[in-house]
Amino acid sequence: MSNYSIRDLEQLSGIKAHTLRIWEQRYNIIAPKRTDTNIRLYDDQDLKLVLNISLLKEHGYKISEISKMTSDELNAEVMTISDRKLSYPDQIHALTISMIDLDEERFEKIISTNILQFGFENTMIHIIYPFLSRIGTLWVTGSIGPAQEHFITNLIRQKVIVAIDGQVVKQLPTSKKFLLFLPEGELHEMGLLFANYIIRARNHKVVYLGQSLPFNEIEFAYKLHKPDYIFTAITSVPSSNDVQPYVDKLAANFPQSTILLTGYQVVGQDIQPSENTILINKIEDLMQLAAH
């Protein structure tokens, strides 16, 4: 069972903390626990309730109506709405609930329906990425437990690997070679896997080296493959003080390649790229680069 602050609920549901407090006082619709210092704490069931209320409100229900519903009635209304085509924000809510409940069947239904309708790439960009971004800070702070994190990331990882396995890459005269890796100690592979898919979908060759690669192994692969581009994501490793030296080392040691950098410790940070380094601030940047 996870614990959430009122700010966590605001981030996950899109409902302002001030509004949640008003609902609590006026409608008694949610009853948080309190710490010894009187700080509100919410559990998984509270989060599910708020997400379901958010879904109903987005579909025209008034809070005064929702507050009079029993738990079964509220769930029935949510299921009725869920059987229709949901907007992207609604589907992100639904994914969050499937994560809380460790509900693989619900996750599969949401993702498979979207892949069939919009394609794998659009599903990742418009649903999976915003979902991972929304809950990412909660993983870092520990508001979401390891079981829930591992459950959802492994399911998404399986989808990406299956999609990559189904790709047929045509080598064209314009095809480039990309070397993909994560720094030693870095294990957050989701973005790297999707970058692999994006690049291959545009008929480029990928040398995929995966997680936690020592620097001397990057040097070995560089000499062997002479890639046009080297792509990496710096999320938690190296530490913030060591990111700039690491970036400089990549640029200096691999001067014949263009270094592509992304990740939490790069995007929006005070990183000074070298002449042969490009910062990938969003996935669309990589898509645009790989399209040429």
TrEMBL record:
Which Pfam families does the record associate with it? B12-binding_2, MerR_1
One GO molecular function term of this record is: metal ion binding
Q: Which UniProt keywords apply?
A: DNA-binding, Repressor, Transcription, Transcription regulation
User: Domain HTH merR-type spans what residues?
Assistant: 3-72
Superkingdom in the source lineage: Bacteria
Q: Which PANTHER family is this protein grouped with?
A: MERR-FAMILY TRANSCRIPTIONAL REGULATOR, REDOX-CYCLING DRUG-SENSING TRANSCRIPTIONAL ACTIVATOR SOXR
Q: What is this protein called?
A: MerR family transcriptional regulator
